Amino acid sequence: MEQELINKQKKRLFLGFLLSFAFLFTVLGIVVFQGINLNMYAATDDRLKETVENPATLNRELNFMKEDTFQDFPLMENQKEPEGEEPKDFQQIVLLRDKNGYILNEKALGLRYETLANLKFSSDNLGDITSFTTTDEKGTVHHFHGIATAKTSTANEDLAYLQVLVSTDQLEESMAHFKLILLISMLLAFLLAVILSRYLTNRALKPIVTSWKKQQEFVGNVSHELRTPLAVMQSQLEGLFLKPNETILEASEPIANSLGEIRRLTKMSNDLLLLARYDANELKSEKNWHKPEEFLAKIIEPYEELAHSQGKTLTVLNEIFEPVLFDQNQMQQVLIILLDNALKYTKENGKIEIISKAQDKYWQLSIKDNGIGLKEEQTTDLFERFYRGDKARTTKGTGLGLSIAKTIIDSHQGKIKAEKNSPKGAIFSWYIPRKN
Predict the structure, then answer these.
(1) For residue 431, what are the contacts with CB-CB under 8 A and spacing of at least 6?
(2) Which residue would you say has higher pLDDT here, 362 or 226?
(3) Secondary structure of residue 84 in the 3-state scheme
(4) String of b and e for 336-372 (b: at least 16 CB within 10 Å)?
(5) What's the mean pLDDT in 201-227?
(6) CA distance 119 to 101
(7) For residue 258, how many other CB atoms are within 10 A of its CB?
(8) CA 432 to chain centroid
(9) 380 pLDDT above the threshold of 80
(10) Distance CA 137, CA 113 (A)
(11) Which of 38-52, 140-154, 206-220, 422-436 has the lowest mean pLDDT?
């Protein structure tokens, strides 16, 4: 069921990313295509407008008609005009038309006339750039951009329209290549979109899946932690019902056990509430400047006596004397959690060391013990909520202490880590910035 929900969410995210990328790439492709398409013909169309408005264009063509001597292209000296070959590139062409649209300067066009005569002419779009397509005798398709305007001249009474054409065959060929390249690019972009969508989907789901699993583990751990004290209290209270005539003094042991479990449940609920408030950013660190030696002295003294009573040695070495910015109450809670763990897991005649010093821009405090030690794989899992590693380290705790410690250190923009001590034991160290 859970995997099915994850798969559905994965599909939704993948399709969302894919459609977003596809939309963006499509819009980008259209913008690029339209931009190239408009700019490619812009210069040609501007020249057409300049040419048709230039009086010299009409005068030149009328003079050609008077002279009655035409050739397709200017020839160099001693160069003969090729026979039977139609020019491959029309370049710029000027057509003089009568009121019916028939071409007047037929001879000036030479071999090109047969092809140009097929062009349809309409006086409805005078002054506008128009695209034309025609096919010559060999089946070759030619493309033109043209503009026409109404013209009259005393030199030629039949003249009604002046039309200027420019061959766009090369531009059309370039556009065809560009379309092919753009199409290939869009296909590659789509493949890239698929890959990116898959990557982003997995990346987006990773913290969700991790959080989901942690939530399941959390619920399972809480249920496990609650089961034992509730079972103890139930059995103790049921035992009292079986002996209704016992005095309070005679029933003091089951009552005390029940009260002990109630205190344990109360502490667990307080710890969980504290973590929930940290998660919701409801608890803020009230940082002030404190001297580490004074901070440590107030907390360590009762623990030195406690360690001595248990046959253990607790020593403190402070090497930092400048004030550090931190929340005293919160850091006191962290230090007590670490000291409690060190005392729990250090056997009689064991040794616990507290070392406080400056490490670059951090205040480093390490608590070393020579107790039962840690396994390498436990060094990061220890700070997870309700984590219980080696059964030998399992005591009547809530399994939330180190998680609370890490949360407080994180709120100070610091870090906390656990590592193995040599030859045996564990080292817990915190690093918090000495300044903001």
Answers:
(1) 359, 362, 363, 364, 414, 415, 416
(2) 362
(3) coil
(4) ebbbebbbebbeeebebbbbbeeeeebbbbbbbbbbb
(5) 78
(6) 10
(7) 19
(8) 30
(9) no
(10) 11
(11) 206-220
